[in-house]
């Protein structure tokens, strides 16, 4: 089973049902998470993502969303350590994006699912939720 790290922007697409000019990003995120519930892959959740989400979405909403995934053992947790931050700051991109890549690698993820694939160029294989 594939293990994928999900970037914060995909969760925000889902929670805010976001769209761009042409595409229903919220629907793409919904379908992606639905596939995880069908046991197609396991999702890596980091405390870094949780911190970013909590600045926009209530912890209760996040917990309700994660509960079905946790019940099916589809969430793998990874936690930031100081060494992860130091490593991320040495990489050639914004350190917070680099931290996602460091955490994905640490958790054994095969992909980062994101809306900003260019942020991870040369760091980690990144794809859009609709392309998983």
End-to-end separation in angstroms reads: 13 Å
Overall number of structural domains: 1
Order of helices and strands: EHHEHHEHHEE
3D shape? globular
Characterise this structure.
The protein has a single domain, classed as Rossmann fold (3-Layer(aba) Sandwich). The chain is built from 6 helices and 5 strands. The model has no long low-confidence stretch (mean pLDDT 95). By secondary structure, the protein is of the alpha/beta class. Helices cover 49% and strands 15% of the residues.
In short:
It contains six helices and five strands. With 132 residues, it is α/β, with parallel strands linked by helices.
Write the layout of secondary structure elements.
Layout: E1 2-6, H1 8-16, H2 25-37, E2 41-46, H3 47-54, H4 59-71, E3 75-78, H5 82-90, H6 95-107, E4 111-113, E5 126-127
Parallel strand pairs: 1-2, 1-4, 2-3, 4-5
Distinctive features:
132 residues, Rossmann fold, single chain, 49% helix
């Amino acid at each position: 089973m594939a293990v994928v790290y999900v970037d914060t922007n995909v969760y925000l697409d889902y929670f805010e049902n976001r769209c761009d000019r042409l595409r229903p990003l919220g629907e793409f995120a919904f379908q992606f998470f639905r596939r995880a519930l069908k046991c197609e892959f396991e999702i890596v959740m980091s405390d870094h993502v949780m911190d970013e989400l909590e600045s926009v979405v209530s912890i209760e909403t996040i917990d309700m969303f994660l509960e079905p995934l946790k019940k099916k053992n589809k969430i793998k947790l990874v936690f930031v350590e100081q060494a992860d931050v130091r490593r991320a700051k040495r990489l050639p991109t914004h350190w917070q994006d680099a931290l996602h890549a460091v955490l994905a690698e640490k958790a054994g993820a095969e992909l980062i699912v994101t809306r900003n694939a260019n942020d991870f160029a040369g760091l980690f294989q990144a794809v859009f939720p609709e392309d998983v």
